Amino acid sequence: MRVLLNFILLCSFLLSTSISYSQEIYNDTYYQHHQIKQLQTPANSLNFLVLGDWGRNGHYQQRAVAQWMDVAMMQMNGDFIVTTGDNFYSNGVASVDDPYWQTSYEAIYNGPHLFEDWYVTLGNHDYRGNWQAQIDYSQKSRRWNMPNQYYAKTFEIDENNSVLMIFLDTNPLNPDYKNEAKYAETQQQDGAKQLAWLAHKLTTSKATWNIVIGHHPLYSSGKRYGKTDGIRQVLEPILEKYKVDAYYAGHEHDLQHNQPQGTSVAHYVSGAGSEVRPVEQRDFTVFAKSAAGFASVSVTKNALLTQFINASGQVIYQHQINKDTR
Predict the structure, then answer these.
(1) What is d(CA 210, CA 318) in angstroms, rounded to the nearest whole number?
(2) If I label 26, which of 108, 152, 155, 261 is the partner at 20 to 30 A Cα–Cα?
(3) Which sign, positive or negative, has the C-alpha torsion 131, 132, 133, 138?
């Protein structure tokens, strides 16, 4: 009985300490001492974060990345958050009631400024589990948005300018998965239908900016250098033909900006939400860093600014595309 009583008292103490700590963190003093000093936020901009390859129960640097995402959203008055896939390692989720939703998502991204809309894409690891559950979770969670395996949404910058964002499911489009048993489910999807839909969306777009989000990068300075030809041959002709402004991907566990000669699309990789892997400088590399972190994106009628932020709250790279030069 005494052991049980002591256990109950200890649990009560830990709970009260946790509540007190939580209340202490998220107040004005906390944000005064936690700022991303070089983070730029242009006036009259649409602002969002891009996070990839992240769901690991808080392991590696997932918690630190989440902390600075909250700060970034506060500083830039962020509008929403985008994921580039691999939302749950290593085998996705089993259902909408899988405990992984709590331990890898709800309990990690719980800062007050992270309760904006999340627009989600599927990665290859998500296909190892119940990918449909990630769509269905949209009906259970207010902030989780995935109406289909691929979808599009237009966001207004001001009365006359907007951003069309296209969220692809690049898994069925990736020829590398045709003969991989663990990704057999990806090949049950109609890739040709998705590509026709993509071309139609871009052909009919009236937006100032056209941005595409997918899981697989078309160019990589990291682990998969020289191994992205398959998906590139499928997607790049469409992105170039319709003058897409930027393509954001994950899959590689790092932060990259690649710009091969002769291409007009800016290629960014934000796949450093938890575990990271080595990168090297390639002939098309503008920036590549093996560092946990995420991207912040600010879009005005004239410019698109991408900034990489690491797990220590430092801006480690900035790149701006000016609309009048494209």
Answers:
(1) 20
(2) 155
(3) positive
Where in the chain are the domains? 46-325
Q: Which residues of the chain have pLDDT under 70?
A: 1-24, 325-326
Residue range 46-325 in CATH 3.40.50.300: no
Distance CA 258, CA 285 (A): 5
Instruction: State residue 305's pLDDT score.
Output: 98
Among 82, 54, 53, 71, residue whose Cα is nearest residue 297:
82
Place of tokens 């469409």: 238
Closest CA to 100 of 128, 80, 72, 78: 128
Q: Please state, in angstroms and rounded to a whole number, the distance separating the CA atoms of residues 121 and 129.
A: 14
- Rounded to whole angstroms, how far apart are CA atoms 108 and 56? 10
Phi/psi for 274 (5° steps) reads: -150, -90
pTM of this structure: 0.92
